[in-house]
Specification:
mainly alpha, 4 helices
């Protein structure tokens, strides 16, 4: 298996995890339980879960009023796309 396929599998896993964590945090907010820190949510996005974070934001209507999420998560995704393209082109030559 080449490095690009491993990268895609990693991204799939971390995005599913990030989506689940956003859902869990929204549930905890509704039932007044201890919350997941925003730094942890954004950290998961930075670690490759940007698409999962964006999906979680809008699927669960969670953190959509916070500028650091509505601006930050799309910028994180842009960075991940650029990184993925650089990796793809670097290993394909």
């Amino acid at each position: 298996m080449d490095i690009f396929k491993i990268w895609l599998i990693y991204l799939e896993a971390v995005n599913l995890l990030t989506l689940a964590v956003f859902g869990l945090d929204k549930h905890r907010a509704r039932v007044h339980r201890e919350r997941i820190p925003e730094a942890a949510l954004l950290g998961l996005a930075v670690l490759g879960g940007g698409v999962g974070a964006l999906a979680g934001m809008y699927l669960f209507r969670h953190k959509i009023r916070k500028r650091k999420f509505t601006v930050g998560v799309p910028l994180i995704i842009l960075g991940q796309v650029v990184l993925s393209l650089l990796l793809f082109f670097a290993i394909s030559h």
